[in-house]
Amino acid sequence: MSAAVPLPPPANPGAGSATTAGRVQAPKLAVTVSEVIDVTPMIKRFRFEATDGGPLPAFSGGAHVIVEMREGDILRRNPYSLMSPPTQTSSYTISVRRDDKGRGGSLFLHQQVRPGHRLTLSPPVNLFPIDWRARRHVLIAGGIGITPFLAQMVQHAAAGTDFELHLAVRERAQGAYLDELEARYGDRIHVYCDDRGERIDLDRLLEAQPLGTHLYVCGPAGMMEWILATARTAGWPDQSLHSERFLAPASGVPYEVMLAISNKAIRVTEHQSMLDAIEAAGVEAPYMCRGGACGECETEVLACEGRILHNDDFLSDEAKASGSRIMPCVSRFEGTTLVLQR
Ligand code: FES
Fold this sequence. Notes:
Blueprint lengths: L28 E12 L2 E8 L12 E9 L2 E8 L10 E6 L7 H8 L5 E4 L3 E2 L9 E7 L4 H13 L3 E7 L8 H8 L3 E5 L8 H6 L5 E6 L2 H13 L7 E3 L11 E5 L4 E5 L5 H7 L18 E11 L7 H6 L2 E2 L5 E9 L2
Parallel strand pairs: 8-9, 8-11, 9-10, 11-12, 13-17
Antiparallel strand pairs: 1-2, 1-6, 2-5, 3-4, 3-6, 3-7, 13-14, 15-16, 15-17
This protein binds FE2/S2 (inorganic) cluster.
């Protein structure tokens, strides 16, 4: 592929007030739920407004927030992509697919959160930004993976960039926002419904792209792996490939961890993440995605007698094999001794 053609960034390229590079953490946001909409039988949309009535931080398409949900003694923190227009600072919206087998965050939002409910959000962080140097942008989403693209497409339309969206859904009735997208963006939108036997012709799509095109993927893990592997095999360079997935922390057998700096022994329960347990012990730990993607929670392992269950997408295979680092937001441990530099 030839060198990408630079495009001017839109008026609002920032990612709120927290950045990966600078590790600057802005204060958390106190918000009140102002609207809850049933989008499909499985998906609800939530609108948040600042509880003090002021503006929320601007963000850029692809950004997410961590929604903190307290239910009795349980504090859940789940990442959700912001889908509202990035320049709209009067409110944020997210869409949440109910996961009946998850750790309870989406169920809590679906079953307990109503207008007037107060919640806490992290400031927006963008791990999946638009690369404005690209000559063309091809977005591929599966199901609820559409949400970061909703905000990105607002920016693409405002900037006049060349983009198209390919969206795969199980059936049309379960696909969120299809009618609105087709009405707004016309033939830039391509929908594939499983129940009609429609499949994206990936080889042809990739082949048809001009040099300088960037590919963005968000959806189920299997779909993302297939698309990225196909693109790499077809010769697409890594810098033209963008993807985002937040892993849900896995449940597992309870275990103990020693925190060397804090001098605390903590127990990680069956449905708790190691990061949750560290926080519950009153020890501050950094995070941005809580889904094994950003690297912010990376922690040094000082001693390990047992096996680290590396569940993240961040550490290299070599780093995982060395056993010297762990991402406590999603990874677990089996064994007798695990000592962390925390
Ligand atoms: S918080 Fe992002 S990888 Fe752990």
